[in-house]
Design brief:
It contains 16 helices and no strands. The longest helix is centred in the first third of the chain and has 46 residues. By secondary structure, it is mainly α. It has a domain of about 150 residues. Helix 2 packs across helix 3.
Length: about 375
C-alpha cells in the first residue's frame, strides 16, 4: 500500500468519525432542510398568486406557520394532556376487563399472562411515582427541556436562513463534487426537493384526514376520549406501518370498558380508515413522492431509531426518500446503466470471424452481380 493510499484511507476514517460525533447536529440540519423545503412551496404559491416579493412571501409564510403552531399548542395540547392522563388511568382497567371477559378467555390465556394483566392495575400508581421522581430531579428535567428548546430554536433559525438565501448553501454543497459533474448534481438536488415537497404535503394531508375520520368515527361509536385518540391517530400516521397498529390500542381499550362489540367496531373502523389512506389518499396525494417499499420503510425506521434515537425515527422517511433519489440517479443511472463489460478473447475472435465471413459474402455477391451484368 502506497503512502498516498494510506493517507487517503486514514482521512476517510477520521472524516467518518467526525461525522458520527456530530450526527445530532447533522440530523437537526436535515430537519431544517425538510422544513425549508416544505415552507418554500408555500412561498412559491404566495409569489405566484399574490405577486409578492420573495422576502415578503417568506415573512408571511414563516409567521403563519409559527402562529399556527403556537395556536395549535395553546388550544389543543392542554385538553389533550388532561384527556391523556385520564386515558392512562383507564387503560389498565380495560386490560383487566379483558382477563375477566369470559371464562373461555381465562382458560385460553396463560396464567402468568393473566397475572401480568392484573398487575397493570398499578400502572397509575407507577406513573405517579415516576412523575414524583421527575419533580424531585427538577434540574435534570430543566436541562432536558432547555436542550429541546434550544434544538428547536436552532432548527427554526437555520430554516429561515435556508429560505432567505438558499443559493450560497447550494453552491457550497456543489463544490464537494468535480466541476464536470456539478450540473448533474443540480438536477439531482432538484429531484430531491420535488420528492421532499411531495412527501411533506402528502403526509400532512394524510395526518389531518386520518385525525378527522378517526374523531368522527369515535364520536359516532361513543368511545371515551375521542380528542386524545383522534390526535394520537393523526400524529402516528407520520410513522407508517408501526403508527396505525399503535394508534388502535388505546381506543380499543376504552371501548372494552363499555362493551366488547364496541372494541371490535373500533378495530374495524381503524382498519377501514387505514385502507382508505393506503389505497386512495396516498396514491392521489403523493403522486410526486418516490414510492418506498413497505419493507424498506420499516427497516429504515428501525435502523435510524437504533442509531439516532427518537429524532432518527421521525426523520427516517425523509432521509430514505432523499437517499433513494441519490442511489437511483448516481448508482443506477450514472454507473450501473452505463457499465459495459470488456469483451473477452472468445467474443473478440467470434466478432472478427463474423466480420470476415460478412466481407467474403459481400465480395461473392458483388462478383455474381458483375457476372450477371456481363
Amino acid at each position: 500500500m502506497s503512502l498516498g493510499t494510506l493517507v487517503g484511507f486514514l482521512a476517510i476514517i477520521i472524516a467518518l468519525y467526525i461525522l458520527w460525533q456530530i450526527k445530532q447536529v447533522l440530523l437537526l440540519a436535515f430537519a431544517a432542510v425538510v422544513f425549508a423545503t416544505a415552507i418554500n412551496q408555500l412561498v412559491k404559491l404566495l409569489q405566484q398568486k399574490l405577486k409578492l416579493s420573495r422576502k415578503n412571501a417568506i415573512a408571511i409564510s414563516v409567521s403563519g406557520v409559527l402562529a399556527f403552531t403556537i395556536g395549535f399548542i395553546a388550544l389543543v395540547i392542554p385538553p389533550f394532556i388532561e384527556q391523556f392522563q385520564e386515558l392512562v388511568t383507564l387503560v389498565p382497567t380495560a386490560l383487566e376487563q379483558v382477563s375477566n371477559w369470559n371464562e373461555w378467555l381465562r382458560n385460553l390465556l396463560p396464567d402468568n399472562l393473566i397475572e401480568d394483566v392484573r398487575g397493570l392495575q398499578s400502572l397509575g400508581q407507577n406513573l405517579q411515582s415516576w412523575l414524583d421522581k421527575i419533580v424531585s430531579n427538577f434540574l435534570e428535567l430543566f436541562s432536558s427541556t432547555l436542550s429541546v428548546l434550544l434544538n428547536s430554536l436552532l432548527v427554526i433559525v437555520v430554516t429561515i436562513m435556508l429560505l432567505a438565501k438558499p443559493t450560497p448553501y447550494k453552491q457550497i454543497f456543489l463544490l464537494m463534487f468535480p466541476a464536470f459533474y456539478r450540473s448533474r448534481v443540480k438536477t439531482i438536488l432538484k429531484k430531491c426537493e420535488e420528492n421532499l415537497a411531495g412527501w411533506a404535503i402528502g403526509i400532512l394531508f394524510n395526518m389531518a384526514v386520518i385525525a378527522i375520520l378517526s374523531g368522527i368515527g369515535l364520536l359516532l361509536l361513543g368511545v371515551r376520549l375521542p380528542l386524545a385518540n383522534c390526535l394520537l391517530a393523526g400524529i402516528l400516521t407520520f410513522i407508517p406501518n408501526l403508527g396505525p397498529v399503535l394508534s388502535v390500542v388505546p381506543p380499543a381499550a376504552m371501548a372494552l370498558l363499555d362493551a366488547p362489540w364496541k372494541a371490535v367496531a373500533v378495530v374495524i373502523l381503524y382498519i377501514v380508515i387505514q385502507q382508505v389512506e393506503s389505497n386512495i389518499l396516498t396514491p392521489i396525494v403523493m403522486e410526486k413522492q418516490v414510492s418506498l417499499l413497505p419493507a424498506v420503510t420499516l427497516l429504515s425506521q428501525v435502523a435510524f431509531a437504533v442509531f439516532f434515537g427518537i429524532l432518527g425515527l421521525f426523520l427516517a422517511l425523509p432521509i430514505t426518500v432523499v437517499a433513494q433519489v441519490w442511489l437511483k440517479e448516481i448508482l443506477v443511472r450514472d454507473i450501473l446503466d452505463r457499465w459495459q463489460a470488456k469483451p473477452n478473447s472468445h467474443s473478440s475472435n467470434f466478432r472478427k470471424l463474423s466480420e470476415g465471413n460478412k466481407r467474403r459474402s459481400d465480395r461473392q455477391e458483388a462478383n455474381l452481380d458483375r457476372s450477371g451484368v456481363k
